[in-house]
Amino acid sequence: EVQLVESGGGFVQPGGSLSLSCAASGFSFSNYYMSWVRQAPGEGLEWVANIKHDGSEKYYVDSVKGRFTVSRDNAKNSLYLQMNSLRADDTAVYYCARGGATKFAYWGQGTLVTVSS
Amino acid sequence: QSVLTQPPSASGTPGQRVTISCSGSSSNIGSKTVNWYQQLPGTAPKLLMYDNNQRPSGVPDRFSGSKSGTSASLAISGLQSEDEADYYCSAWDDSLNGWVFGGGTKLTVL
CB–CB of B34/B20 below 8 Å? Predict the structure, then answer.
């Protein structure tokens, strides 16, 4: 069974940093693109970033370029999102998703990030 | 303002057929396949339809998808109360070099 478990969310002040993790199991992690998708409270879905199976290619939505960094550790079956210079409009539930080349086939339960003073 | 345009709401009675539209442009739906996601209240999204009209294992055949030009549609026949959810369309956008979503359609079963 595919499982994706996010962690690392929390409360942070504007300008601060936070690091999210996603632990994957139930599939061959190193064979898949992985992605982060977020959802602001009461709003729709927004793709944030994805990373190729070997980490050689990374893509970001314009609003996070230069502030967020996606990475992965295939030996640990883990996906990461380092978020710097956080802004109030980064407040959202962040979902880890398997895929990103053609579709988001599986999603984690999400972790809430709140940016507020 | 979402890149893909969906109606904010849709509704139907049990047993009815409802359709949700998704409009895009040549850089996304016009040249790429469309995926649909279902988000039940308080839960994470789930892949409902991929490659325009392919259902993942476990998705009932009451759900169907189609695409024509720069628009796509999700149809739900034999509407059931458990279909009450938010539905999102999505596609890769070549101009933005990223994934885009519709704003979501809240389906209410009356």
Answer: no
| Partner residue opposite B104 with nearest CB, options A44, A47, A108 | A44
For residue range A31-58, what is the model confidence (pLDDT) as tens digits?
A: 999 999 999 999 999 999 999 999 999 9
Neighbouring-strand partners of residue A12: A115
Distance separating alpha carbons of residues B101 and A36, to the nearest angstrom: 13
Choose among B50, B97, B103: nearest Cβ to A59.
Answer: B97
Instruction: Give the alpha-carbon dihedral of A50, B96, B28, A47, to 10 degrees.
Output: 40
- Cβ–Cβ gap A107/B45 under 8 Å: yes
Q: What is the dihedral of CA B5, B11, B12, B14, to 10 degrees?
A: 110
| Segment 17-36 of chain B within 8 Å of chain A by CB | 33, 35
| B31-45 mean pLDDT | 97
Q: What is the pLDDT of residue A100?
A: 85
Phi-psi region of B87 (alpha: psi -120 to 50; beta: other; left: phi over 0): beta
Q: Where are the alpha helices (DSSP H) in A20-83?
A: none
Contact A104 B2 (CB under 8 A): no
Non-local CB neighbours of B68 within 8 Å, separated by 6+ positions: none
d(Cα B57, Cα B90) in Å, to the nearest integer?
Answer: 19
Q: B37 and A100 in contact by Cβ < 8 A?
A: no
d(CA B70, CA B25): 5
In whole angstroms, give the CA distance from residue B6 to residue A87. 28
